[in-house]
Design brief:
Elements (H helix, E strand, L loop, with lengths): L3 E7 L3 H12 L6 E7 L6 H11 L3 E6 L5 H11 L4 E4 L3 E2 L4 H12 L3 E10 L2 E6 L18 E3 H7 L10 H10 L6 E12 L8 H17 L5 H14 L16
Helix pairs in contact: 1-2, 6-7
Length: 256
């Protein structure tokens, strides 16, 4: 059975951290490693981590210290990971068998990783539905990073998240690993993650403008042609994520 390393980064977000770690405890996959990177929180995050460490049946590694941003925190976690599959997780799994589904799908398809759909939620209210399916970067497509679990060998070959991308560090990484069509991904056509609504890409117009600039830079530095057209296509795809989800109901307090 493959070991899965789940990397959780957090900073002064104790309430959501508790929900995140509780959902990880409920996963039915047995060979798990939890890696928690705290950015030097001043709330009770460290106490929550210590309490989780006592409950978790697998391996827990954690550290609490200042960092330069999300990309550096994740890179610390990847360097600590010993699993054959690595995922970044700081939200909530939609069900107790998400990781099991991911591993089985990678095994069945013989691919390098897997991704699926996600919901952006604010409490129990759905704000956005990320459902991109399969596609290509050149068509404005991008797998939902919170649902993206990759074999460790992908990081060994392509490197870690790059500094200098405050708003699009995840997008640059995904472009880098997918641009040559050598990394093959499976797609699970169902909601895998409930993502807490917030962060740099949902915090206002100015932040979104900076995200677009970062996105174009990511494409240019990875030598992808027509970066502005691709960015426009991506914007259109993103706009559709804010509609057609009204019938979806979420109850994260009493989810199965």
């Amino acid at each position: 059975m493959w070991k899965v390393s789940v990397i959780t980064i957090t900073y002064n977000n104790a309430e959501n951290l508790a929900k995140t770690l509780e959902a990880l405890l409920q996963q039915d996959y047995e060979n798990l490693e939890s890696i928690i990177i705290d950015g030097g929180s001043t709330d009770n995050s460290v106490e929550i981590i210590k309490n989780f460490e006592k409950k978790f049946k697998g391996t827990v590694k954690w550290k609490s210290e200042k960092d330069r941003g999300m990309y550096e925190a994740i890179n610390k976690g990847i360097k600590m990971a010993t699993g054959e599959i690595i995922g970044c997780y700081w939200d909530i799994y939609a069900s107790s068998d998400v990781i099991t589904k991911m591993v089985k799908t990678i095994e069945k398809d013989g691919t390098d990783g897997v991704h699926g759909d996600l919901l952006y939620i604010d409490g129990n209210k759905v704000k956005r539905y990320w459902k991109m399916g399969k596609g290509r970067i050149q068509n404005g497509w991008m797998p939902g990073h919170p649902t993206l679990y990759l074999k460790k060998e992908v990081y060994d070959k392509y490197g870690l998240y790059r500094e200098g991308y405050k708003y699009s560090w995840d997008y640059e990484f995904i472009i880098r690993i997918l641009k040559d069509d050598q990394v093959k991904l499976s797609y699970i056509p169902e909601i895998l993650i409930y993502m807490f609504y917030g962060g740099t890409t949902t915090s206002g117009v100015q932040a979104y403008k900076k995200s677009i600039i970062d996105s174009i830079k990511s494409l240019e530095e990875n030598h992808i042609r027509f970066p502005r057209i691709i960015t426009l296509k991506r914007f259109i795809r993103t706009a559709f994520q804010f509609i057609n989800y009204k019938s979806i109901q979420v109850d994260i307090e009493n989810k199965e």
